Amino acid sequence: MNRSVTLEVPATHSSVTAVIDHGCEFEGKLCFQGTVRIGGTFRGEIYTPDTLIIGEGARVDAQIEAGVIIISGEVNGSLRAKHRVEIHRPAVFRGDILTPSLSVDEGVIFEGSSKMAHPLQASTTAFEK
Q1: 75 near 90, Cβ under 8 Å?
Q2: CA distance linking residue 91 with residue 101, whole number of Å
Q3: Domains in the chain: how many in total?
Q4: Is residue 3 part of a domain?
Q5: In sequence order, what are the residues at sequence separation of 6 or more whose Cβ sits closer than 8 angstroms to the Cβ of residue 54?
């Protein structure tokens, strides 16, 4: 009997490199290239020059540095994006954001601070209070 199994990844971007899906938990340091979608629980640090998608229902407690960060879940921590951060409903975000471009949908819970910076500053400047 010959069976083929196909993994379908629901995401707004077609080229997802990896998925940490609902029911999965990961703690530590995640470094990657491409696009990663988190739908489960993550604690730690995330570094990528590319795209991180945090899906609805996900819970992330992390320091994140990425090219693009797209959030629909719950995130607690600091974000540094080289290109942009998008926060979509029903997201909950608590922390600090440093990015040249920020988009926050109506209905999102945002508790924290944001600083708009030139792309080079967003990739090299630490958060300052």
Answers
A1: no
A2: 18
A3: 1
A4: no
A5: 37, 38, 60, 69, 70, 71, 72, 73, 75, 91
User: What Rg do the C-alpha atoms of the chain give, in angstroms?
Assistant: 15
**Is the residue at 87 inside a domain?**
yes
Residue 128 corresponds to which tokens in the numbers above?
């300052």
Report strand pairing: 59-71 vs 41-47. Answer: parallel
Q: Which domain holds residue 37?
A: 16-117
Q: In Å, how far are 21, 59, 92, 94, 122 from 102, measured between CA atoms? A: 25, 20, 15, 15, 12
Residues in the chain, pLDDT under 70? 1-14, 119-129
- pLDDT, one tens digit per residue, over 10-21 is 444 457 888 899
- Prediction pTM value: 0.82
Q: Has residue 80 been placed in a domain?
A: yes
Residues shown for the chain? 129
Q: Is position 81 within any domain?
A: yes
- pLDDT value of position 16: 82
pLDDT of 76 reads: 98
